[in-house]
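Minutes, project check-in
Item: structure for the 310-residue chain
Input as provided by the requester:
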Amino acid sequence: MGDHHHVNPEDGDRRVLLAIVVNFVLTIAQIVGGMISGSLALIADAIHNLSDALSLVIAFGARRIARRPPDSTMTFGYVRAETVAALINYTTLIVIGLYLVYEAIFRFIDPQGVDGWIIVIIAGIALAVDVATALLTYALSKNSMNIRAAFLHNVADALGSVAVILAGSLILLFEWTIVDPIVTLMIAGYILWQSFAEIGPVIRILMLGAPANVNAQDVVNAIRNMQGVEEVHHVHLWRMSEQENAIDAHVAMSKLQADQSQSLSDEIKAMLEDRFGLAHATLEMEASHCGVTSTFGHEEAPESKGARDA
């Protein structure tokens, strides 16, 4: 449907590995700095950064698994490993966001002393690392929701570092310790907003939902309007992966076209790929149309129809 610029898989793996190492080192530095300074915001940023590192580990493993070819066990291949990884990462982010909200509320009730200088220094280093990690994964994120989940982890963490630097500065200048839990809530809010926004498409793929950019009824109408087609039913549209859409359908031919099923099937498949980006099409060509059928789904049982009419 659109042109994609692909990064060499091995080069992409090296980028992800480098990002993993850097993020783990940074996480340790932030946790130590947060404990010494007494800053919940810095510890919140560290926990989020740890989730960045873990998300990159999951993303790296999923990238490797997804490139395995189809076999007798996984006949569609392993490409959905990246989708599963994205679901894990977004779910983890949601849990982290809710935990940070919980901790921030208790900081409002019981304020703690905070060392502003340590916050600013550690958060400044974290910001530099977060930006570098985001740059490492940016190109890969364009074509993979798995890497995009990890990339968004880093973007959120970079923004969190900016907020922590601001909090540390305000504590140094005005001794406003209350800003620490306020910034924590801001970081948590951003994490939750991004996670809930991105997890929907991931669930849609795993639930075999139709592609969001393809109108199922338009697809059905396009097939019905082709010369030689009497009816189309038992239509299923789904996404095999983030880049590949698929369709499965029964096509009833007119009597005049019954002996030309292969050529008609080829024409329909070409149209589906050209107009809707449905590169993987499985069509069952039928010589006549009979029985009570449903456009989407399976054939309706005769007793169901009788019960409904009664």
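Outcome recorded: Strands lie at 229-239, 245-253, 280-286.
No further action items on this chain.
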